[in-house]
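This is your field. Pick holes in the following sequence-structure pair:
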Amino acid sequence: MGMPTGLRLPFFAAALALLAALAAGDIAVSPDGKVVRGRIARVVFADGRTVANPAAVHLDHDRVLLDLRSLVANYRFTHARGPAKKNARVAVYMGTGAFAPSAQAVVKRLDEAGHRPRLLFDGDVDAATLKGLRAIVFPGGWAPSMLVGLREDGQKALAAYVRGGGRYLGICAGGYLPCKNVRWEGRDHPYPVALVDGVADGPVPGLAPWPKSEVVALRPGKTGRNNKKLRAIYAGGAAFSVNGARVLARYEAGSAAAIEVNAGKGRLVLIGVHPEFDATDGDILTWAGGPKVNADWFRELFKNLLR
């Protein structure tokens, strides 16, 4: 079944169609949600905006359907959850590239802490929306897909927000996203948000090979000499090498698993593992083998970020 060069879809379906077109060039999502075959030259959003297929960001073909499922799951979760806290000053990115289990766990932890954050999708990350926020969280997922969801305008708005004094917490994919250089499986990829002058390098040697996951023990603190161990899920996250950053935790081999770094007037915390999960998340943890973890470290990191 061929797809026309101009296709009017609901917003989320259009975003998925664009993602698919970028990744494979021959997969699309029809208005009724079915995956069909065809080729898309441009997408017309419900509000009239038109986006051509720029093929600007490399996407792994295997990611397309996973991103689709996560995006739909995040929309359903948002609808079931209801509105954000009135005048909420915290936001979570739930759009293209945000892995549903991670994104939803982040929202649950922030809800539990009384923040009741705003949930942002493709097209929501702009200067007007970010204005007044104290912090934004980008969860785990797939960073190249996040770049597609943000588009150039969103990338620039996010960078301006942080440099102007905003706070950013990035988990796994969200940790890769703001770095100038992403080294994935030995190949370097310049990233356009470019808030952090350094390298996010993954997957980390000696840990679960991508796309597998495992629970790892981390050494907290800059020196890593503290005997207290942190436990979190590792799933393809980065080790960070960033000048001027404060190391919050290290992998057992010594590379930086979590850092805090300034950008202009703002501050970022980047984490290569998943501290957002709690044992109470139940089925949400099945992708990682149902490990017994807790989110105390995530709560501590976010609390400190707002200071």
Notes: Confidence is low (pLDDT under 50) at residues 1-14, 16-47, 49-61. The first helix runs from residue 11 to 23. The chain has two domains: 11-52, 63-305. Residues 150 and 253 are 34 Å apart (CA to CA).
